[in-house]
Write a structure and sequence with these properties.
This protein is mainly alpha-helical. The chain is about 60% helix and about 5% strand. It has a two-stranded antiparallel sheet with strand order 1-2.
Length: about 120
């Protein structure tokens, strides 16, 4: 499929798709006219990349991780390594800390909102 169709099907801009390719996260063949030609499984790959970026991983870590994941279900492949698992555990711990900090911030805001709502205008 062409880059425009992949962008439409995944909701990701063509610019982002070119960036993913530049970073080695996504691979496209080229037509005789020089246009990118993505396989059908590129849709799952782009979705997976988006999920990993949303989790706070950077492109270098994603590039290390993607070969160890199956695109269709996100499960591990046979080449997942103990070091990669340790790196991902550290990322998970970082995300857990962020969740805790955001939850605390939300709670403080809720208290301020509730206090302000009880006051007479």
């Amino acid at each position: 499929m062409r880059i425009g169709e992949l962008a439409r099907r995944t909701g990701v801009s063509e610019r982002s798709l070119r960036y993913y390719e530049q970073q080695g996260l996504l691979v496209a063949d080229r037509t005789s006219g020089g246009h990118r030609d993505y396989p059908e499984q590129a849709v799952d790959r782009v979705v997976r990349i988006q999920e990993l970026f949303a989790a706070g991983l950077h492109s270098r870590k994603i590039a290390r991780l993607l070969p160890c994941m199956r695109d269709a279900d996100g499960g591990p492949s046979e080449i997942a390594t103990p070091q990669l698992a340790a790196d991902l555990a550290a990322e998970r711990d970082r995300i857990e800390r962020m969740i805790t900090e955001l939850t605390n911030s939300r709670d403080v805001l809720d208290e301020v909102i509730n206090a302000a709502s009880r006051r007479d205008p």
